[in-house]
Fold this protein.
Amino acid sequence: MNYLLDTDICVFFLRGKHNLHNKIEKAGKENCFISEITLAELKFGVETSENPEKHRVMIKDFEREFQILPIFSALDIYAAEKARLKKAGKLIDDFDLLIGSTSIANGLILVTNNEAHLGRLQNVRIENWAK
């Protein structure tokens, strides 16, 4: 099994919460990926934190641990899903939609604590490792 770690899961991992270090080790770090969107969100969090210097180092180390996936292969899924969700009146945040679309495009299970929103996507497979 291969997994895409959502931003919330990465934050929990970095904070040492929900036994995520062990869960990721059990899954195999080589089987866990992050989206470049997640990396952008983490870097924004660093810049708005009380200690950006410390957190920049933490994110740099984190970047080296996981393969980062580009969003290009997910753009068609993103566009179709955004149009479908808009028609249904159930839009979700663009970054969440891009991350979810990346998991679908790459055949990955999305690991997230945001099941309510990301579960709106068609063909998305979700696991919540924060429970």
Observations:
- The mean pLDDT is 97.
- The first strand starts at residue 3 and ends at 5.
